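Please study the protein below:
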Amino acid sequence: MIKGFKEKVYQRLIFEYDRLFKKSRLTEEELKREIEKAIERVSSESRSSLLPQEREDLIKELVDEFMGLGLLRELFEDKSITEIMVNGPKKIYIEREGKMQLTDLYFEDEAHLMRTIYRLLESTRRRVDETLPFTDISLADGSRINIIIPPVSLTGPVITIRKFLKEIRDITDLVSLGTINEKMARFLVAAIKARLNIVFSGATGSGKTTTLNVLSSYIEPSERIIVIEDTAELSLSQDHVVRLQTKPPSIEGKGEITIRDLFRNSLRMRPRRIILGEIRGAEALDMLQAMSSGHRGSLAVLHAASPHDAVSRIETMALFSGVSLPSWAIRKQIASSLDLIIQQDRLSDGSRKITHITEVRGFENDEVILQDLFFFEIEGLDSEGRVIGDWRVGKVLPKFYPQFTKRGIDLPEEIFNEES
C-alpha cells in the first residue's frame, strides 16, 4: 500500500511543480510542509492513512528526492564514502577506503532514477536526452557528477559521483594520508611559490585534481588566477580568481565553447597564473606556447600513466591543433615550457600516492629528457594486501633550482640528495 500511496503523493507534488519549485527555491522546511499537505489530501481522497513511522519515512524520502540527490543523499553525506556509482536502478556501488562495495539501496525503476537525474540537472546549463545522452555537472561543494543514459548506456541511466573531500585542505593533509612525505611536501610548496610550470598526471580517480587544488592554495593572494575547466571541480581559496567553464552545443549543434576557445581568451585577461582543469586536445599547444612566452606558474591536469606517457600525450594532442609542426619541434617546446610532471597513482590497495615528481630536464637527440627527483619504490604487499614501499630521491639537483634562490625561497640543496 505504501508504494501506491507514495506514487499518488508524488504525482500531486508534480502537478503542483510549477507553483512550488519554479518560482523560487524551496527550503527543506517549506518542502516538508507541502509534502504533509499532499499526504493529507491523498489520505482524504483514498480514505486511507499511514502509520506515524511510515509517514515520517515517506516525508524524508520525498524531501531527499525533490532536494536533488534522492536516496543517494545518505551516501553523499557519509564522509567515509569517496565515490558513488549508480549502474541502472537496481545497483548502487560506493567506494570506501579505496574498495568498491555494492549497497543494499536501489531505485524503484528507471523512471524513479531519471527523476533524480532531472533534479540534479535543473540548476545547471546541462541536459541529457537522446540527442545528447551524457554530460558532466558539478555540485556547489565541488563534487563532480557524470550522467549517461540510454540509448548509449545499455545498463540504463548511470550516475557517477566523485565527491569533493573537504577534509583535504593543505599539504599536511596529503602527508597525513600518505600521499607524499614531508620532504616532497616542502619541495612542492616551494615549486608553486617559485612559479614553476607543472602538469599533474594520473589515471581517473588517482587524486591528481585534489592535489592540484591543495597546492593551488599556496599561490599568493595578490595574483590574478584564471581557471579553465570542462566541469567545475577546483575550489580555490584566493579572492582574485576568474573561473571559466566550457559550454556544450545547443540542440541545433551551435554555440559550443571549448577549452581551447577559453584558453585563447584567457591570454587577453592579463592572467598571472592559468590553471587548466584538464588538457584534452588541441589546447595543449596553446598551453605550451603560453608557458614559454612568459606565463610562468601555469598548472594543468592530464590523464596519463607515467611521466613519459604524459609527454607523449601532450605531443599527440598538440599535433591535433592544426599547426603544421614536426614532432621534434613540439617535443622541443615541451622541454622548454614544462618544469615538472607530478605523477599520482592509485595503488593496488586503494591508496593514492604521488609516485613520481619528475623534472623536464632538457632536449637532446630530438627527445625530451626526464629526471625523477622523487619516486615511490614498491617492495611488496603485507599480509592484509597493503602496499609496502617508500619514497626515494633521484640525487640530482634540478636545473631550475636557481629559481628558488631568485625568488627568495629557502630550499636547501640537500633535500635532493638525502634519503628521508
